[in-house]
TrEMBL record:
Start and end residues of each NrtR DNA-binding winged helix domain: 141-198
Protein name: DNA mismatch repair protein MutT
SUPFAM superfamilies per UniProt: Nudix, Winged helix' DNA-binding domain
InterPro entries, A to Z: NUDIX_hydrolase-like_dom_sf, WH-like_DNA-bd_sf, WH_DNA-bd_sf, WHD_NrtR
Regions that span the bilayer: none
Length: 216
């Protein structure tokens, strides 16, 4: 019987590092290996893909997070039980997203950790989407909390793209995208007070130019 499923690569940005949501598999095949949040599509319960994805996110208590479909993969080799197809989604959540099941693992700890099925390949495809799209869109803003400073937003881009940004050019690009709203509040601490912003436009806005790290 052909298996159709959803696999979701859920990422958060916490303590200056990207973390991935995984859980330990409790049955064969790949028993005791870590796997992505996944869901077998049920033709009775799921009238469409969006309903299936909503059901998965509800099961994991991930709420109304940012999501987008990355790719679809299917083959006889990806599941030892037989031919299977999966639709892969990228989901971005805030740093304080509550954890109802599974565990957060830093991305740098993944090499050498056994993963179920072809989930290493699925993670790689989702990360490539995140990094490529972050160069020309406001995608990283969805990894921040409800309120954030400009410096925190810039740092999110730097962590994802793995390169420093030209601060002046970065600020100009973000302001031109018109996605931020000044909350009227400031974050205080050891450094000078910084304006707190929130997202004005919840969609992913495309820039008019590709971002090229320190060059702007």
């Amino acid at each position: 019987m052909l298996r159709m499923s959803l696999d979701v690569v859920v990422l958060r940005l916490r303590d200056e590092r990207l973390e991935l949501l995984l859980e330990r598999r409790d049955r064969p095949p790949f028993e005791d290996a870590l796997q992505l949040p996944a869901l077998r599509i049920d033709e009775e319960r799921d009238p469409d893909l969006e309903a299936a994805l909503d059901r998965l996110l509800q099961e994991w208590a991930l709420g109304d997070c940012y999501r987008e479909q990355v790719c679809s993969l299917g083959s006889r080799a990806r599941d030892p039980r037989g031919w299977s197809t999966t639709l892969v989604y990228l989901c971005l959540v805030s740093p304080d997203c509550p954890l109802s099941r599974g565990q957060w693992l830093p991305l740098q700890s993944l090499p050498g950790i056994p993963l179920a099925f072809d989930h290493a390949q699925l993670i790689a495809k989702a990360l490539e989407r995140l990094r490529v799209k972050s160069r020309y869109s406001t995608l990283p803003v969805h990894l921040l909390g409800e309120e954030f400073t400009f410096s925190e937003l810039q740092r999110a881009y730097e962590i994802i793209l793995q390169t420093p940004m030209n601060t002046a050019a970065f600020r100009k690009r973000i302001h031109r995208a018109e996605i931020l709203c000044d909350t009227g509040r400031k974050r205080t601490g050891n450094q000078r007070p910084a304006i707190l912003y929130r997202i004005e436009d919840p969609s992913c806005v495309m820039f008019d130019q590709v971002m090229n790290g320190a060059e702007g």
